[in-house]
Each structure stands twice: as structure tokens, then as C-alpha cells.
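step 4 of 6: structure.
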Amino acid sequence: MRPDRRLRSGLIVGPALALILAACTSGGSGATVQPSVAPSVAAPSVAAASAAATPVASEIPAADVTGNLTVLDWPGYDQEMFWADFKSTYPKATAAFEIGQSDADIYGKMKAGDQADVFHPYTGWLQFYVDEGLAAEIDTSRLKNWDKVPDEFKKIGQIDGKQYFVPWDWGFTSVLYRTDKVTTPIDTWGALLDPAYKGHISMWDDGPGAVTVSSYVHGYDETAITPEQLSAIKAEWIAQRDLNRTYWASETDLTAAMKSGEVWLAYAWQGAYATLLGEGVPVAYATPKEGRNSWVGLYGIRKDSPNYDLALRFLDAKLGAVTGNNLVTNYYYGTANGDVMKAITDETLKEAFSVDDPSILQKTNFTPNLTAQQRDDWTAMWTEVKAN
Amino acid sequence: MRRRRLGGRVAFLALYLPPVVWLLLFLVVPLLLMAAFSFRPDLRGGLLDAFAPTLKQFAAVFATESYLRLLGLSAAMAFGVACIAVVLAYPIAYYLVRHAGRRAGLYLLLLLVPFWTSYLLRVMAWKLMLGEEGVVNSLLMYLGWISAPLDALLYNRGTVVVTLVYVWIPFAVLPILAALSRVRPELLDAAADLGASPASQFRRVTLPLSLPGIAAAFFLVFIPTIGEYVTPSLVGGSGGSMYGNIIQDFFTKAVNWPLGSALSMIMLVATIVLVAIALRVVGVGRFFRT
């Protein structure tokens, strides 16, 4: 397929690269350094069962399952409360965490040969894991909690007709605004581009996010943005830059800026909404006429992971009720366990998830999967916005 | 004789080999890798697989006017930061050498106190200073000089320059301090004997002799500042990005390592060229005369 003229530098610097990459993947983020693959540590019976690809759930008592699992996750999700069911169900097994700061960071690490057994990408960032052969297919018949997951979420984890990812956390994206500063209720994504709010807007520092907003506003098909549309989007956000106070990189940046009054309205996940509500800041979360956006976080298992069975158990436990409740009450994000969501009683949370609005999910647009080309083009568009 | 030479060689190797190996492994090899990556068409396929080299990434950079303009702007900002930092650092160094006397050590220690705090914290502190509810705005409002908070204090290129100057001043002091302390007092006595006023003693003796220190301080600030990305991302706001932020975005947000590598290589070459020109203008010979 490729032309014959090839650069052989890969061969020359290969061993050195391996060394560098090893250093990068284990040291970079202050993550836990672990023996990368340790089949000898995993219970032999588990490994054998894995090879035979037979259900093991009934064969080994949960309390006797051993093994070390490495999870590449986002900061915060390494806290024990977010894998409480795994901890209590499999007391003899351990989970070590590596930290990734963003979807790009996690993908970059996996691409560079990170040996984590389980990793945590979000909607949009799924297709290329499969294309590049980094994700193993999920045997959902071995997930006891699988029937609690709504079909909409299951579908998002399917690539090319196969289940490669297990949905876990989800939430909305919409326009969040201070009701004391913005007096007319906001009902459109276009508010983020409105000169009336000059100097008080904060957009997420993200190219695909900007493409999403423009697509909603102009009615573009987000999955098929043309080059003309992309250059119009670029021009739009270059113009927006003068209205924008600062691009936010993390949710804590955003909540701090909104709490201080520096930012009046922003592109925001509903975790920020719940946080500010909880702190008594007067904020509202728009239901734009173009629809809210929704994102879903999913877990994948690395292809060739020697701990496939333990990883499945981990993901099944992730869907457990205790873990799900911890996610909902501590981070104000939804869990893919539908039973947990239906049981929410807290008023702030009901408000944040719009639980009482039965049509809210119909008014929501799930983030579509990016292709590698879209990822490159859209992020390049965004750097040009910032470079201008 | 022979044994002594052998011992000398062993000592030489023992002293020089570790840093050389270290630099080779963690500086030269990564740079070469990055150079190789800049010729990749994309990031698909194995990272160690052979690929057909292409100039596509460089073409993409040169086709994007805004990237090159930002590189120029970043170089200009770095130049400004380096000049201001050197001008502000010089009197500090001068005072420490000439007037601080026995307290010089203590003052030097005080100068280095900020380094006991994380870089990130020091930059964040500027947000507290310059924010809408920050120290400066609160003070001005309290004094009644302004009625609404100034929002121009934070989140622009000016803030980035101010913050970077603050960060670099202590670094700029050190080479100037070293150069000034090598200026022998007898030279000034001689100049005075020959009728030079204090001002012309400074202009014609002290300043020329401290030029190597000034140049070293300038480059110490200028070179890392061109590629700076942390400070602009914290206090630069929407319009305060520098070239380093673009590189960072391609690595960490876009997973487009080939394009990020091409941007890095261009910056590396541009920096080397700029420094070479500057050295030629100042005169290279000066730096080796002490």
C-alpha cells in the first residue's frame, strides 16, 4: 500500500524510542508505575479460563479472584469511591491507576504502547482506538449489570457493529450562565457568539467543541462538515475570540471564573452547573432551542491485555450501584446504570439531570464519533483561531 | 607516567560520561525522534514502523500564515521580556556587588526565595493580583480612582509579558552578578585617577566589562521564552497564545505529533538563526574574553 521509499529511522532508533516511551508513559503524569505485564501475578486459573474463552463468573468465587489491573483514567476517577464495587467484590484483586489529562492525552499514551488494561475515552474519541487495533471486543454476556444500561448508551459503545466500549459516565453540555448578570434567559447556543456579552464569555478550549456549537447554530450536519463550512466556523470563532474572556481547560477553571463573576456565560458540562448551584451561585443551565449536547464516557479494554477477565469484572463492577451512586452524588454526573438514575431523589441533582423533563434525552444531541481526519482538521482549525 | 595518564582518562570518563549519556538519551535522541516524526504523513500505524517521508507537515505550517505570524510575535515578546528583565536585573546585580557588602549573601538568598514556591503557584498569584476582584482592582476601587474593575489587567499579551518578566528577573541577575564581580575595583580607581567621573567610570569601564553577563542574561531569558506555553495559557486569555501553545495543542489536544514536530523543528531553527544573528551583532569574541 505504502510507497517503497521508506524511512528506516524507526529501526535505528527503535530501542531508544522504546526507552523514551517507557519513561514517558510511566513517569509523565506522576502516575503509578507498575510492572507493565505481569501474567504470573494474575491467577493462573483466570488466565487459563481466558484462553478458553469460557464464562468464569461462576467458576471462581469473587472473593478469591486475584490479579493486578492497571487503569488509565482521568484525574479524580482513581479515587476508590469510583470503583467501590470492584474493591468490595474482589478484595484480593488490586487496581493501579495511571492518569491521563484529556482524551488526546489518553489516546496518545495508548498509541505509544501504554500497557494499561483498561482505558477511559469519551464520545468522539472512540473510532480510532478500533481502527488502530488498540481495543478488544467486550464480551457483554459476562457483564451482570449490562441489562441495566439503556440501549442508547450501549449503542454509543459499538463500533463497526461490535461492542468495543462499556458506557459508564455521562452528562450534558449546554450554555451555563449567571442569572444575576445575564437578565434575559438564554435559549440558544448562539449566545456564546453574541457581542452583547463581550468580555464575559468563556468557551471550552477545544476544536471539536467549537465545531459542535457552530453546527447547532447553523444547522450543519456535524458528521459531514464540508471544508467551506469549516472555514466559516474558523472565521466565526476568530471573531468570537474578542468576545471571549478566556478559554477554559478544566472544569475547576470554569467554576472559579464564573463564581468570581469574571465569566457570565460559558460552554459547560452539567458538573459545573451542579457545583455552582451547590455553592449558592445564581446560575441557570440553558435548554437551547437547537438542543443540548450530551457526552458519554466509556471504558475499553486494551487488545492483548493479559488481564482481560479481570478487566471485564472491573467494568461490570463499574456499573454497580454503589459506584454509580458515588459518581452521581460526588461529581454530579450520570451513570450508565439506569436503575441508579431512576432512584435519584436529591432536588439539585434532579434539576441538573433534568430528570423531571421526560423529553430531555430527545432534545439532546450525542457527540458523534470523530474520524482521525476530522480530529486533525478540527483541532488544526482551533489552533488557527488561537494563533490569529 | 603511563599510569597517571590512564588515571586521568578514567577520571575524565567517569566525570563526563554520565552527563553526556544522559543528554544523548534524553535530549539528542528525543530531538532526532521529533525530527523524524516531522516527516511522517500522519500518526496512523505503529510508531516504530517505517514510513514514507513527506514534507506535508512543513508545507502545512508554511501555508498557515497565522502560525508564522505567531512565531514572529512570540520572538518579539521574548525579545521584549529579555530586554526588560535585563534592564531591571542590572541594578539589582550592581547593588549586590557594589553596595550590599556583608549582606550580599542574604540578599541573594532573598532573591532566590520565590524558587521555593512552585512556578505554577507564582503565576497563579498574578491572577489573584490582576483579576477583576483582584488586589490591584480592589485597591483602585477602594481609593476611588476607578468605579468599575479594569478587565484589561488580566488575560492579554501584556499580562503575559509582565508575568514572564517577573519570573525571569532572578535568573537574569545571576550572570550579570557573576560578570560584575569579576570587574576589579582597581580598574575603577585607575579610571578615577585619570579623571573619569563616576558616570563615565560606569559607562566606559563597568558596563563594557559586564557585557558578557548582560548577553548571557539576555539569552538565558530570550531562548526559553520564545517557546513558552504555561504562562500564556494561565494568564494570556483568549488572545494571549504564544507559539508554544500551538505546539502544545498539536501534541496534547490534537494527537497530531507530526505537525507538532514540524512546528517544533521550525521554532528550533528559527531560534538558532536569531541567536546566531544576535551573537554576530554583539560580537562573538567578547564572550570568550574575561
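step 5 of 6: annotate
 - Chain A has two domains: 57-170+296-355, 172-294+365-387.
 - Confidence is low (pLDDT under 50) at residues 1-56 of chain A.
step 6 of 6: archive
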